[in-house]
């Protein structure tokens, strides 16, 4: 199955900018890192993207798979053959056993707080195996580039009367995310501004 990458990347960008508007310290930390590090090597930028993908996967229900004709055993459970199964990516990202404090947005779980990342195998926003997303590297490159450039040039804030709650409440899963509106203001930064 082929899913165009623009809508999934746009959904992820919307959620990244939501978090940047919600917590201005994230932008400050990211700008500090990007002063000395290229986006492709920026660990906090990668962590910010990973944490966004964990909490807001652009394909939240995951993809359907069919068990082999012989069936398969998962833990102590036998699943008969030729059965359609699904492993929702949204639910995986909220497993307490894999991600302690799973509802909190903590990019540091991917860098300096590994105790908040108990099972990295539960993180699969691009799916896994032979049907994983072929556009993964292009999507990550696009995310790193857009976020790095915009964060370096702008402070990101909620528009008047915007809290971001409609983004979280009204975004719909229609295989990929149908993202609800998010009204933001991008305030141009002075070149000499340090934080």
Classified in CATH, the superfamily is: Cytochrome P450
- Count of alpha/pi helices: 6
- Strand portion: 5-15%
Kindly identify the CATH topology: Cytochrome p450
Reported for the largest beta sheet, the result is: 2 strands, antiparallel
| Spatial separation of the terminal alpha carbons | 43 Å
CATH architecture descriptor text: Orthogonal Bundle
Characteristic key phrases:
195 residues, alpha+beta, Cytochrome p450, two-stranded antiparallel sheet, two-stranded antiparallel ribbon, 6 helices, 36% helix, elongated
Topology readout:
Layout: H1 5-22, H2 24-34, H3 43-55, E1 64-66, E2 72-74, E3 77-79, E4 84-86, H4 89-92, H5 136-153, E5 154-158, H6 165-170, E6 172-174, E7 176-178, E8 184-188
Helix pairs in contact: 1-2, 1-3, 1-5, 2-3
Please tell me about this protein's structure.
- With 195 residues, the chain is an alpha+beta fold.
- The chain has helices at 5-22, 24-34, 43-55, 89-92, 136-153, 165-170; strands at residues 64-66, 72-74, 77-79, 84-86, 154-158, 172-174, 176-178, 184-188.
- The chain has one domain (5-60, 88-188): Orthogonal Bundle (Cytochrome p450).
- It has a two-stranded antiparallel sheet with strand order 1-4. A two-stranded antiparallel ribbon has the order 2-3. Strands 5-8 form a two-stranded antiparallel sheet.
- Helix 1 crosses helix 2 (24-34) and helix 1 runs parallel beside helix 5 (136-153).
- The chain is elongated.
- The protein starts with a helix and ends in a 7-residue tail after the last strand.
């Amino acid at each position: 199955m082929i899913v165009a990458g623009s809508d999934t990347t746009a959904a992820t960008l919307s959620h990244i900018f939501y978090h940047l508007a919600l917590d201005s310290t994230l932008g400050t930390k990211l700008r500090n890192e990007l002063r000395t590090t290229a986006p492709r090597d920026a660990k906090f930028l990668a962590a910010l993207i990973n944490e966004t993908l964990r909490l807001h996967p652009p394909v939240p229900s995951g993809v359907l798979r069919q068990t082999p004709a012989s069936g398969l055993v998962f833990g102590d459970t036998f699943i008969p053959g030729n059965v359609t199964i699904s492993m929702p990516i949204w639910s995986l990202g909220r497993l307490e056993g894999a991600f302690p404090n799973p509802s909190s947005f903590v990019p540091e779980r991917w860098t300096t707080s590994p105790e908040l990342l108990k099972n990295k195998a539960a993180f699969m926003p691009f799916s896994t195996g032979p049907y994983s997303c072929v556009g993964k590297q292009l999507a990550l490159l696009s995310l790193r580039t857009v976020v790095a450039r915009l964060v370096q040039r702008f402070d990101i804030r909620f528009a008047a009367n915007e809290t971001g709650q409609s983004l979280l409440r009204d975004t719909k899963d229609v295989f990929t995310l149908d993202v609800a509106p998010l009204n933001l203001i991008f305030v141009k930064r002075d070149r000499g501004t340090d934080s």
